[in-house]
Batch of 3 targets.
Target 1
Amino acid sequence: MRKIRKNDEVVIILGRDRGKKGKVLLSIPEDDRLIVKGINMIKRHTKPGRTMRQAGIIEREAPLHVSDVKLICKKCNQPTRVGFRLLEDRSKVRLCKKCHEVID
């Protein structure tokens, strides 16, 4: 179980985009990386091909390491660390470390 997942709202805590907020588009758990919408933009110089007809300079998001972001709790609306708790029905849920509320 991952601490930060797809569609979570996060804030960037390190790097040139420090302080910006965004939504997680893709989680890459084997590399501990995330792609966040509108954050860590890079420019790719591409040639036209069979799959990509558009040539030129294309801007897109690059992956960030998971340690460079913090989850924004929906209850307290603050950046927080994530913990885990087992419920009575033996299911494991994520927990906000600041307000101790269940995240999902």
Target 2
Amino acid sequence: MRAVIAEDLALLRDGLIRLLTAHDVEVVAAVGDGPSIVGALLDHRPDVAVVDVRLPPTFTNEGLLAAIEARKRLPGLPVVVLSQYVEPLYARELLSDRGGGLGYLLKDRVMDVGTFVESVRRVAAGGTVMDPEVVSQLFEKRARDEQIGRLTPREREVLALVAEGRSNAAVADHLVVSEKAVSKHIANIFLKLDLAPSEDDNRRVMAVLAYLDS
């Protein structure tokens, strides 16, 4: 697997290079500012890009905008966006094309090496990964919604785990229940939210995110 990294902090950039390289990911380019990202992605066409939201010169949303632009020019380009803080607006903007192959993670998650590498690989394979804290804040904003209010506490818990990109088996392991029980919960959730059920993980996650963003 080949990756391009965009991170302005030299220590973190070097750390990401070492971390990914140690897990059999070839880092073909590593840049430190917004204007360099799109060119690097177009030149190398990597299997995945790992991009900081805030980059020079303005330290606002250069990384995010570059990722969106790159995906317009290379449809389906897998991108993992890293953010120092929870910024649901940026998460929704990144996911607006519903194309999959996307991740939005807090930088703290990099410290959990196994989970981070798994997330990068999942995105490279076309999946979607949302940081649990971002999912939580999206739910809080929709907590008073009539449809969300139809869900039981357990169904909300299952939906949050699904929105993080977990499979039925992973949800079952986390909650220490059977996969059959999880499947039943998910069927009930989509019924209550007026969403078509699907066994495709990416489609399920994007449907949930589309609902949360509606």
Target 3
Amino acid sequence: MLYPTFYRRSDPFALMRSMLRDFDGTYPSLSAPSVFPAVNVWEGDDAVAVTAELPGVETDSIDITVKDNVLTLSGERKPPELPDAARWHRNERSYGRFSRAIRLPFHATDDRVEARLQNGVLRIVIGRPEEDKPKRIEIKAA
């Protein structure tokens, strides 16, 4: 966004904003770090569902474990193989090992976990144990 000359003089921070915009575009690794993979978690009466964005990650490179009330998702996103003469013009995607630990609202066991990877999105459903499900209390008439 360009500011007219008269506006720049009355806005002492215009130059600073402009410099920060230029700096952020030049050095993306110094901007706010992103967490990989991005996850969404939601809870229903019967289960908790977790989705994780894992583009470019093969299923054999993903490990899912459940212990007590912690779901751990880990793995590795491998960099693409480039020809010897190739050079990067822009490299914004991260590669390497990753790990996310997600605290669940109940103790879970691995026999109640289902996972599917489709179009780069991993969906994990963790079933709530029967003894942990909310139970409706019937009110008796007096």
